[in-house]
Design a protein that fits this description.
It is a single chain. By secondary structure, this protein is α+β, with helices and mostly antiparallel strands. The protein has a domain of 74 residues. Helix content is 20%, strand content 22%. The protein contains 2 helices and 5 strands, in the order αβββαββ. It has a 5-stranded antiparallel β-sheet with strand order 1-2-3-5-4, covered by helices on one side. The N terminus is likely disordered.
Length: 108
């Protein structure tokens, strides 16, 4: 049975287009502002939904570093992959909120 989701050749996260501000990237992941939510989002460079726990911890640590460096809000990690459920990514959401529109930025 064919998948209901496109493969990596048609995945927006695999494409990694620089549509918003990028904060970090390495061989494991990249972190940019989510174009829908306006919060930092970490994206695993592998087209899969199941990173090993050490990789997930690594990506969440990098996401926390971005929030600490570039923003002034406390965050929680939301890795419920709503719009792109077939490629692991996680958002740094403000505690008590969901979207980041208008959130203050830290000194950069």
């Amino acid at each position: 049975m064919p998948s209901a989701f496109p493969g990596p050749e048609h995945c927006d996260l695999c494409e990694a287009a620089r549509l918003t501000e990028w904060f970090y990237e390495d061989d494991v992941c990249w972190i940019a502002e989510c174009e829908i939510c306006a919060v930092p989002m970490v994206v695993w460079r592998v087209h899969s939904t199941s990173p090993a726990s050490d990789l997930k911890s690594y990506m969440h640590e990098k996401l926390a570093n971005v929030v600490e460096t570039h923003f002034t809000f406390e965050h929680f990690v939301d890795d419920n992959m709503r719009n792109i459920p077939d490629h692991y990514h996680a958002h740094a959401r403000p505690v008590g909120g969901f979207f980041g529109h208008g959130l203050p930025r830290g000194q950069q």
